[in-house]
Amino acid sequence: MPRTVLVTGGNRGIGLAIAREFLDRGDRVAVTYRNEPPTGEFTAVRCDVADMDQIDAAFTTVEAEIGPVEILVSNAGVTEDRPMIRMQEEHFSRVLDTNLTGGWRCARRALPKMLRGRWGRIVFVSSVAGLRGNPGQANYAASKAGMVGMARSMAREYATAGVTVNVVAPGLIETDMSASLPEARRAAHLAEIPAGRAGGAEEVAAAVAWLAGERAGYVTGAVIPVDGGLGMGH
Predict the structure, then answer these.
(1) Which one of the listed residues 33, 140, 158, 218 is annotated catalytic?
(2) CATH number of the domain to which 66 belongs
(3) N or C terminus of the chain: which is more exposed, having fewer CB within 10 Å?
(4) Quick check: is 232 in a domain?
């Protein structure tokens, strides 16, 4: 049956592909954005996940327009890449506050109504960087690795209440962000990937949609890599 879905950072790239996947399934879909809203049959709400007041306002709008959030996909994120020796505390804190604490804020806001309904799905969009590290991304990798511990703690707390909490860890995916990579760096990434290619955002969306479905009710605390085999063993 149709569910109410909220995808944070759902206005472009992987987030937009996820939102479209749920829309194609017949769900009621809301997305958050910071600057440009997406086109499509979504309930689009402006929200910076670094601000709890904005999160609360976004959830209130979604609840009023399409119903309580039953599926939360925490995808909103930022990068502040630079070598560790040149990384200032504000660069580290800003990325952690948006990517990791932002996900915690959204999950905390969604959980009470999921628990009352005895059903819920929370999926955090992490990254292979959180499992293996990336040069120049100590802050980003830390935020994405933190999602795994947070998700597994939540999974243990709420499994008996019918709420599952899982993580998807994409590798190199064809998005606007990856398109801007220098050719030499992109070639080096591709050389490490057993599949020999970058993934599509729709492939990440398919994994998220499966985790959010009825048939994945016995899957919780999992980390699903969508990376062409890059992270095998992590």
Answers:
(1) 140
(2) 3.40.50.720
(3) N
(4) no
